[in-house]
Amino acid sequence: MKLLKSSSIVSILLSLSLLSFGTVRAQQKPNESKEKDEGGKILDMNKLPAAVQRTVREQTKGATIRGLAKEVENGKTQYELETKVNGHNRDLLIDPAGKVLELVCLAMLGGAIGNSAEIQENRPIRDQTAGQITRITPADGPRYARSVRAPDGAIYILGPLKTIDGGKSLVASEESDPPWGTALRESAMNSLLVRDNQFLAIRNKVTCATGGDCVGKMWHSEDGCRTIREGDTHVLIPEAGKVDNGGPGEWAGLFFHRSILEMPGGSLLAAMYGNFEQDTITPTNPRSKSETKHKLRAFVVRSVDNGKTWRYLATIATPQAGVVDDTEGFNEWSMVRLEDGRLLAVIRTGHYTPMVASWSSDEGKTWSPPSMPRGLGPGADPHLLKLRDGRLALAYGEIVQPSGPKEQYWKDYATKGDHRRRCRLAICPDGMGQNWTASTVADYAPRSAYSTIFEVEPNVLVYQADLEVWRIELARRK
């Protein structure tokens, strides 16, 4: 078992004097050269390699290009793309193969969208980081950053950022804070549970061997997150048969996702999705094919030893053979306990197909057939939260939907597909999960829109997606 050290976050925080990515790189080294057009700012796109052109087009949908330059340092060529998204600088380094090497941005405080019947006020929180820049590589996960409320009440984002005043301001994490590093992200600390001074997190993917013994990674603390220890977690699931763990670039296997609930008696229930041996249905459209090797099922597992081992409990939803649709099956999902004691699950089915819901009245042993709640459409990474007044809140991301026939959209998807996403918030007034009113928190932009929400005061939410954060005041329950 390994102890996670706090020193790992220090290297990614820079001082206020570096006001933008352009400033960071302004002091050109003797062996470095930059090439721009005759106007001195933006290179002609036609001069770029085809792979770089594709990346630039993808990364600038919904953004303004501030600059585009070719850099050669020690014989190594890179392209510097400077953009502005929602009023914030967002800059990238791209290699000649089109790969994003580095992403640099100010801590992005989300710009407000209009109010709605449910959202009384939506405003960005104040930046108290003194202009600090978070400089990280794409592997550090800013595009899929998670956030967690620690036992002391502070909300940490990715690891290096936090709010300690209920979402009124954003500050940089300190050396004395919990040693998150940059592990608060979808590919690492994905499923999270905080109770009293105890903390549990589980990495999303587990690796399965023959016989159904699947091994994953967990983090845990029993001292209020002052120290966080790493270790293995085991999912014992012979019911899955021979699991295809997938190869490089393939999304296949079994995954934890988001929710861990404490049950009466102290056992834990966790949300998972993936492919059992019999789950071999291939997705139909190009986007779904890029998301998963086979259509996925959603299921629950149970632990009686605080997350060290898990056993299969029940499948909530599984794709049906012979059904042709645009779904990915049933994958990312979240669950809560309702006021009447039932469990509610809200599940992603794909970027272009509606989310579905399922209810359990027997602590997760059986679930109702999945159905489409009124008021919800397509959504990625849904996050459910029961509010103090009994209402439900649901945060999720939504990709731009085709404006015409889907058949034509799929034909042109490689060149004309619009990958921008918006952040959405839905409220269920009666707290039962069947009827929702959805609002837009932030409009379409190049983001993952993988969202997390916290109620910090009655009717006040902190909403986080990537490195964007909003404080949202809800209308009171009628």
Taking the alpha carbons of the first and last residues, their distance comes to 50 Å
Which regions contain 5 or more consecutive residues with pLDDT less than 50? 1-40, 105-115, 124-141
- On the 0 to 100 scale, the average pLDDT is 82
Query: How many structural domains in the coordinates?
Result: 2
Major beta-sheet overview: 7 strands, mixed, barrel
Beta-strand percent range: 35-45%
Count the E strands. 33
Query: What is the name of the CATH class of the largest domain?
Result: Mainly Beta
The side-by-side strand order for the widest beta sheet comes to 17-18-19-23-22-21-20
What structural class results from the helix and strand content? mainly beta
What do we call the CATH topology of the largest domain? Answer: Neuraminidase
Using the CA coordinates, give the radius of gyration: 22 Å
Percent of residues in helices comes to under 10%
Shape type: globular
Q: In the CATH classification, which architecture of the largest domain applies?
A: 6 Propeller
Count helical runs. 5
